[in-house]
Structures are given as structure tokens and as C-alpha cells.
Design a protein that fits this description.
Length: 115
């Protein structure tokens, strides 16, 4: 399996986007949870406050971490039908079977035309 890790150190830092789950809590507070990192949460008395606390929490976490892109090459798998390809090539009855199939298809086509 081939893998590669891409890291880019540019002067321009792209903005990252995250999906956030906003939940109203039974005690009247609001909890914001980062869906990609469920342990990264923020809570507050309003949705805005919860999101701000979540953002601060994530920024603090990213100060001591980094984000990389991991590319994994898919494993090369043989087509499952390949083990059957050509299995009847030396069968002396193969031509006869093909002719029978073609005759049956012609008959089906004729039957369809008369309907």
C-alpha cells in the first residue's frame, strides 16, 4: 500500500471550515460540538457564545498540532470475473453452445415482434 503525506508551509494560511453540531441543553445552555473532532466542544448561554468558545478551544488545540493531508493508494484488486475469462476456450462444445444461445435470442426477438 502506498501512502503519502502532504504538508504545505505557505505564508498564506487557508481558512478551514468545520461542521458544528449545535444542541440546546436541558439546563438552558447551548453546546457546540465539532463533528470531525467530537471531543472539541464549547458551551455558553447563547449559540454565538458556544461557537466562540468552540473556536477558541480549536485554535488552542491547533497551536500545538498540525493538519496534514494523507493520500492512500487504493489496493489493486483483480477483477473477480477474470478467473472465469476464457475458461471454456478449449471446450469443443463451446461453439455449439454459442450457436444455441444465438438461435434462442433470435426466437425471442421474433416472438417480441409478433406481440
Amino acid at each position: 500500500m502506498n501512502t503519502s503525506v502532504k504538508t504545505s508551509f505557505s505564508k498564506i494560511v487557508p481558512k478551514l471550515t468545520y461542521d458544528v453540531l449545535i444542541e440546546n441543553q436541558p439546563d438552558g445552555t447551548v453546546k457546540a460540538t465539532l463533528l470531525s473532532l467530537p471531543d472539541c466542544q464549547g458551551s455558553g448561554s447563547t449559540e454565538t457564545e458556544a461557537i466562540e468558545k468552540l473556536s477558541q478551544s480549536l485554535q488552542t488545540r491547533l497551536e500545538t498540532a498540525k493538519i496534514v493531508t494523507l493520500e492512500i493508494e487504493a489496493p489493486k484488486v483483480e477483477n473477480p470475473w477474470m478467473k472465469f475469462a476464457g475458461m471454456h476456450k478449449d471446450n469443443p462444445l463451446f461453439t455449439e453452445v454459442l450457436e444455441s444461445i444465438e438461435a434462442e435470442r433470435r426466437q425471442i426477438d421474433l416472438d417480441d415482434e409478433t406481440k
